[in-house]
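Subject: complex prediction, re-run

Hi both,

The earlier run crashed halfway through, so I resubmitted it with identical inputs.
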Amino acid sequence: MPKDNKGVIRRIHKLLLNKDVSCQELTKRYLEKINESNLNAYINTCEEVALESAAKVDKKISSGDEISLLEGIPMTLKDNISTSGIETTCGSKILKNYKPIYNATVWNDLKKVNSILLGKTNMDEFAMGSSCETSFIGGAKNPHDLGYVAGGSSGGVASAVAGNIAAYGLGSDTGGSVRQPSSFCGVVGLKPTYGAVSRYGLIAYASSLDQIGSIGKTVEDVSIVFDFISHYDDKDSTSHPGIKFDTQGNLKKDLKDLKIGVPNQYYEGIDKDVKENIISALKVYESMGAKIEYFDLPEIKYALPVYYILACAEASSNLARFDGVRYGYKASHYKNINEMICKTRSEGFGKEVKRRILLGNYVLSSGYYDAYYKKAQNLRGLIIKAFDEAFSRFDVLLTPTSPVTAFPENKSYNSPEEIYLADICTVPVNIAGVPAISVPCGFDSNKLPIGMQIIGKKFHESKILNAAHQFEVFTNYSYNKDLDMGVNL
Amino acid sequence: MKYELVVGLETHVELLTKTKIFCSCINGFGAEPNTHCCPICIGHPGTLPKLNKEVINLAVKAGLATNCHINLKSNMDRKNYVYPDLSKAYQISQYNIPICENGYIELSSGKRIRINRIHMEEDAGKLVHKGGDVYIDYNRGGVPLIEIVTEPDISSSGEAREYVEKLQSILRYVEVSDCKMQEGSMRCDINVSVKPVGSCKLGVRTEIKNMNSVTFMTKAIDYEFERQSDILENKGEVVQQTLRYCENSNSTESMREKEDAQDYRYFKDPDLVDIVLSEEDVNKLKKSLPELPDVRIKRYAEDFGVSKSDAELIVKYKNAADFFEKASKGLQSPKTVSNFIIGQIFRVIETESEREKFNILITPNQLNELVKLIEGNKINMNLAKKTFSRMLETGKSAADFISESDMQEISQSELEEICKEAIKSNSKAVNDYLGGKEKALKAILGNVMRQTKGRGNAQMIEEKLVNLLKNS
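This time it finished cleanly. Structure:
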């Protein structure tokens, strides 16, 4: 067990610099481990691209050139982040064999510093789901117990990071898709402020809620990646101009007098083990000098309906372009163009995606718009205001990430609403556009990880990462694991 | 019963920007299919639109030039519908809050055609049918458009023509669009209904889509007026529907009925931020506008003594008006210049597009020199006109056709001699004239003009002849 609290990225960086292992050897080992793995975390691997970058890094190291922190670190991207020439499926049959002709801004940035892209990771189809099981190749498994799901929708990234088959990864979070699987798999996941990271190249689910976030073993890993990928991007009108983060420099600050708000409504109807662990975490914070105060945030009762109305409305429009005309899956038998589009979509999309498209078209249609979409927009304003007010009193808010720990695989549900309820803790954050992180804070009686969520004010990533890091160092939950990369650490 | 026509127009105009509305692809006409395309304008998954600021500027200019109110805050919406040439399956347009509202264009009669709104949007690609197959060309996808929507204020096909031509003229003046209907950079949808004369209640309307010529537009309106009037006359009901105009048969046919009307499920595009303008931005654009056609017409009439109808004819084409202004410099009578333009230049360049381009061989200065000769009584109008024809054909100056001696002002005594000679040698005409046939004078006049080689002034000669004949 490492004593210096270093994250995975710094440890690998040091190994490479000391020439304890070459980047190519390391990459090969990771690729082998992916092939041996039964986590179903990857949809595709990209050996050639990975090894090519690794060779570049080795050349730089051997010729004595400096390498940056993320250079040569083997990592992964959720399969809805566009990678030029590399298949990007969104976990859907409709995009099987689709190879983008351009790079997402985040991948463009990471590629420039010779990041080692091991492959594209599994996800719920078009990021619609909380278990990763709506993926066209089936769900990613939870490394803590293969009978349980990795969570969703970025289940593949969380599973890969927890299972040591990626040093870190990027996911996307529309209603909790980075935080919830991180919580289920016992890793750290950050959903940045809306507008902090460019969405250019992220295949949209719900544009006003989507945000790319990093998943890593430790808060430091997540912080390093966030600092690197967060900046203004001219290609994304919703990206925030003039931002530059140095969250790493703030990690070690003590938490004396940190004001933590605890919204009562998040603690109703949650699993007993989860509740107990979060309450112990609050005690840890108190012992570190933070001030805890319980308060009411009643507006979050609207969060779920608001989320499902807005997300589905945007999705119905965003997903309308998949018609078989230009790229991706195309039905093979049809009589005319209308039938081609109908059959392509009927055959290409899975059940949950179809459900959300129908729901979205319904809430936008004339005659229903005011009752659903417009009302949801108004309520969104109310929720944003409620968070603004909370942050006028508190530095951060602390809640569970999920009301439950990982569900067993293939669990049957009575209705879709039952699954949607699992998103109750995470969706308010996307609606308000604020940042939040999920950090491991213990295990339930089945030895499955529990995550807590720290929510911050817009663009106050430094504060939540600092709070998360201090907790992590204090409790050692994140470090208390074997990295097992098959190389001598 | 007598019926009256009610027409409203929706005009789509492609903007003269260098690049497309949401990406950096070239905005140009006539390129090889799918060469002005990128992942953004072919709507590849994950791409995002970025609004071209020049589009906002041109839309605001169009609004200012048509007396619109400019909304300082507006936004882009998504209009959702599925068609293969629409790569994202939604068109980014403006729905609830357009950038310009409540303007008007004034017709020469003084009647104002109110403009309800002007909004910005992207064009779609184009389906190309070839040998039984269908291809898609996305070059036009993402080309910036503005749509100018009038109130139902137009009450004849002539007014519709005048409105469209005036709109073209204005948009060309402010360099918002080249408004070439034949190339599709201007297209009109016509809403037509009829009602009994004097009735306040509007009739059921039909919409004729995508007219790409002013002539066909007027024909379509006339046809539709007749068709709807006949239906009402026979106690039938006009069906609300979308129509297509068939040029060959000069008739309209149904594209779809109201029941098939699409629900576009409009909502604010979450990929784009609000469009916010300051008063200062708008004022800057206002200051950048050139003199507009209506102001010019008024100035030509008031300052230059050109009749309003002549001024309208010239001002309609910016290049013609610019030529007129340069050619009129320092002249006593700019009206002579406008007469040359309308009477001679417009006879050589007859089509709208030729007049718009105004590609002629001579310079404004050459016409100016010619008119100075007339004003100095160096040549008469007759010779000037002949000379100008030859100038237009060759691009040469007046001096190349008129010799020094031609330009000597003729003396009264010499003129009187020539007149006397003409009376002597045209006894038949003289007799006819004296016998009451006034027209006979023209023959004698013509004779004198030939003899003076165009140096004499026709009016002066006529007076002299009448005097001589009276005293004979």
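The CA atoms of residues 80 and 263 of chain B lie 8 Å apart.

- K.
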